[in-house]
């Protein structure tokens, strides 16, 4: 028997049905993650709608929201009131409307609206 075991041919291990199931489950998990991503984008759009509603109520803005220009914030400025828009240096802003004085109504990338002073912006 010792000689027979020495020359025994080893066959490669074949995958079992269970291994295929495990692999298939991992593929399904990836697809589920894609759907979660879509859900989060829906949540973002819902949040932006809430911000727009808050903006219209707070600023009593009943006109159509149109972007007049885009600007970049030159420096970081914290907001002192809810109506002011906090800025970070280099942030891109969309100018919605020009108000009396040196203030503009702007929107940031997250969809939040607020007043920004012209001196904090760079129009290029």
TrEMBL record:
Keywords: Phosphoprotein
Top-level lineage group: Eukaryota
GO biological processes: integrin-mediated signaling pathway; protein localization to plasma membrane; T cell receptor signaling pathway
Span of the signal peptide: none
Cellular component GO terms, alphabetical: plasma membrane
Helically-extended SH3 domain: residues covered: 55-121
PANTHER family per UniProt: FYN-BINDING PROTEIN 2, SH2 CONTAINING ADAPTOR PRAM-1 RELATED
Protein name: FYB2 protein
């Amino acid at each position: 028997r010792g000689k027979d075991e020495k020359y025994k041919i080893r066959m490669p291990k074949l995958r079992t049905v269970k291994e295929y199931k495990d692999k298939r489950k991992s593929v399904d998990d990836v697809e589920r993650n894609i759907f979660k991503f879509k859900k989060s984008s829906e949540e973002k759009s819902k949040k932006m709608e809430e911000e727009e509603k808050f903006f219209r109520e707070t600023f009593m803005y009943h006109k159509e929201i149109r972007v007049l220009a885009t600007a970049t914030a030159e420096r970081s400025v914290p907001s002192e009131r809810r109506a002011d828009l906090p800025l970070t240096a280099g942030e891109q802003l969309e100018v919605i409307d020009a108000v009396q004085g040196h203030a503009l109504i702007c929107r940031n990338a997250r969809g939040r609206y607020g007043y920004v002073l012209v001196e904090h912006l760079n129009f290029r």
